[in-house]
Amino acid sequence: MSILRKILSFFVACSILLGFAFQGFATPRPEQYIADGEKQLFSQTVNGAIQAYDIFSEAQQYYPNHPVINTYLALTRIIRFVVDKNSEFNNLIAKYGIYEKGESLKDFEINITEKNGDPLLPLNAPSADEARSFLAKTIVPVLNESINNLTSAIDNWDQKYIISKDSLDSDIDIEVDASDIYLMRSGLRLIKCICLMISSYSWDIDSREIMALINLMGRFDPYYFLDKYPDALKLVKNGAAQLKEAKSTLLGVIEDYLQAVDMIKRDNDTTDGAEELVEFDQHFLDNEEKMIEEDLQALRDSLNNNTVADLVIGNTDDGKEKHLLINLSAYFDKAHNFRDYLPQFNIIGKVLYGTVAHGIGDDP
């Protein structure tokens, strides 16, 4: 072998070794990312939560299918979206005179500018329709990203995860199971469903005028609102499509919750020295949760089969069940203007009974 070939071989070998060494140095193990992210998140500061999102976002690029990383990324994305003073959310609410306060997550709060104890909107406050558009075009995509992270976590979840008591500065470890991830996804899907429903209808109204009227009268006047803004609460251009998506999202909410509860009921092997992140006591499972589960199953059947759901919504003073009959499929599939579902009101804002339309529920 010539001296030149020996030199080239030496450099190639060194390059390969250095490449492996650099890769190992540049990319921490997933456990290190998780530990670093937990340290920031559980510091319970606004800045720590934002840094935790950055850490898990970077980690997910290297470990896209890691269930714990995806779970934390889903959670911290939502937290950062709300608490980061430079986020799109904060830029929007500032236009309505709403501001955030507090550097600790414990003390964090959202306030609205007031004058003499009444909410005060800035002179240049945008119409409510800008907020409606924000729900559909900004908040829903953020929710979708976190929902996708949780879906990946569920698909790849193969064992329990223990959050160390040292990370939590607590006396006990916390056990996270797949059931907890289903509950998280159910919650985010519910928020998404609500956002889609609200943003399916026009909110092109004068925010300042409505707020001033509420401050003056001490209440919201539905008669004045519907008369003043005849196009309010009518379907927007893509409203029907959004309602269709909202329906499928709501079905996902129900399925995730039912799956989570079934897993929680069957989970009887909590790790020694740890507590479940979410657990239900037997009294709740036998009473309130049983009613919730039956109602959700009835709603699911109503949505799938276009039938009336008979929901138990509580008990009367003498112990009898209170029922609500409702067909949500009629609401989502027929896609009427929302104002058409409302009862009519007289001039002082009182409901005119017998005026609820389209048969989605009991006529008052």
The gist of it:
This protein has helices at 3-26, 30-41, 46-62, 67-83, 88-95, 128-156, 165-168, 178-198, 207-217, 222-228, 239-266, 282-286, 288-305, 328-334, and strands at residues 98-101, 109-112, 114-115, 118-119, 161-163, 173-176, 274-276, 309-315, 321-326, 344-345, 351-352.
If you had to describe this structure to a student in words, what would you say it looks like?
The protein is mainly α. It has a domain at 126-279 and 334-363. The protein has 14 helices and 11 strands. The strands form 5 sheets. A 3-stranded mixed sheet has the order 5-6-7. The protein has a two-stranded antiparallel sheet with strand order 1-2. The protein has a two-stranded antiparallel ribbon with strand order 3-4. The N and C termini lie far apart (96 Å). Residues 20-25 have low confidence and may be disordered.
**Order of helices and strands, N to C?**
HHHHHEEEEHEHEHHHHEHHEEHEE
> Biggest sheet: strands side by side, in what order?
5-6-7
**What proportion strand?**
5-15%
Task: Please tell me what the overall shape is.
Answer: globular
- Radius of gyration computed on alpha carbons: 26 Å
Mean of all residue-level pLDDT scores: 85
- N-to-C CA distance: 96 Å
Element layout with pairings:
Elements: H1 3-26, H2 30-41, H3 46-62, H4 67-83, H5 88-95, E1 98-101, E2 109-112, E3 114-115, E4 118-119, H6 128-156, E5 161-163, H7 165-168, E6 173-176, H8 178-198, H9 207-217, H10 222-228, H11 239-266, E7 274-276, H12 282-286, H13 288-305, E8 309-315, E9 321-326, H14 328-334, E10 344-345, E11 351-352
Parallel strand pairs: 6-7
Antiparallel strand pairs: 1-2, 3-4, 5-6, 8-9, 10-11
Helix pairs in contact: 2-3, 2-4, 3-4, 4-6, 6-8, 8-11, 11-13, 11-14, 13-14
